[in-house]
Amino acid sequence: TQLTRGKKNQKGIHRASLIERVTLVETILDKLSPLVHPEACAKVRAAVTRQEKMRLLYDIVFRCGGAEVKSRFFEILKMIHPHLVQELNGLLSC
């Protein structure tokens, strides 16, 4: 349906924005590490670029992580990148 496609498109936009604009991936990972498997953390840390790290972290949070991991991710993101969160929330209300 149109609504489902819209949600998928928004999720894709948000993913792309997060990958492109989140700069403190390691800081987010440090704060999430108690909720994330150590091997997954190591894989993120081993990535070369911050974009690659954020792609991996995004997959951990949104594909593998449960509600607690997602919630904590957004709490951390609000602390570290409040303007980005505000911008993405603005896109959701459009």
Summarize the entry for a quick read.
This protein has 94 residues and is mainly α.
List keywords for this structure.
mainly alpha, Death Domain, Fas, 0% strand, globular, disordered N terminus
Describe the structure.
It is found in: Cytoplasm, Cytosol. InterPro entries: CARD (IPR001315), DEATH-like_dom_sf (IPR011029), NLRP_Inflammasome (IPR051249). Its main location: cytoplasm. It comes from Scleropages formosus. There is one protein chain. The protein is mostly helical. The chain has a single domain (2-93), classed as Death Domain, Fas, CATH 1.10.533.10. The chain contains six helices and no strands. It has helices spanning 2-21, 25-32, 38-46, 50-64, 67-80, 82-93. The protein is globular, with a radius of gyration of 13 Å. The two termini are 18 Å apart.
Shape: globular
Under the CATH scheme, which class? Mainly Alpha
Low-confidence stretches: 1-10
Overall mean pLDDT stands at 84
GO cellular component, one term: cytosol
Keywords: Cytoplasm, Immunity, Inflammatory response, Innate immunity
Protein name: CARD domain-containing protein
InterPro entries: CARD, DEATH-like_dom_sf, NLRP_Inflammasome
